[in-house]
Request: fold
Amino acid sequence: MEARDDRRARAPRRRLAAATAVAVAAVVVCAGAGQRTTSAAGPHPLPIEQAAGADLATATRGTWAQVAETAPPPPPPPPAVEPAVLRPDAVEVPLDAGWGRRVVYSKGIQRVWLIEEDGHVTATYRVSGRLDQPRYGTYTVWSRSSITCSRTQPDVCMRFMVRFAYSFRGDNIGFHEIPRRRGVPLQDEGQLGAPLSGGCVRQVTADALVMWDWAQIGTTVVVVP
Reply:
């Protein structure tokens, strides 16, 4: 009896040892596969419906919550400017060219007018500018230099610069004498009236001096077709 009872006692112990070995083997397999177990009390990602009300200041990738507002979209690019159409020369002041004491610059005719407060035209002459800039509108002379040089081409210089606008790239636009590269003019006087400038408004020396004396800081400039 004692021998039979001993065998019965050892059988449950063998079954318990076998179950323990299987459990240990399962843990080893999981560890070898690179998996990680988490206890029931460990952190878990929030469901989407709960994440919607989560505190954004402590949000993590697991909560599905966005930490910062999305930046607004960039503004649309400015509309393209339709270049002026080159037109035959005319000495009459264009219509809708403003009022009061002002400089009127026609891109289509490539001519300027210096007009007094009472409407009297002090001077008018041909120039060389660009057809696509500056934009049409009313400007004010904001800077003057007796001599200056190109920012991108330092060997190109011009005198009697009267600045009133900016180009599409942010460069200054003004009235000035025909530029010179190492003392040689970039165009001759007979080419005035053609849009040959890189952005500014070129004038023969005598006319550049008239503009220099007449258009002080604050002078109105009206750009028309």
Notes: The radius of gyration is 41 Å. Residues 1-12, 16-70 have pLDDT under 50 and may be disordered. Residues 102-224 form a domain with the L,D-transpeptidase catalytic domain-like fold (CATH 2.40.440.10). Residues 87 and 129 are 14 Å apart (CA to CA).
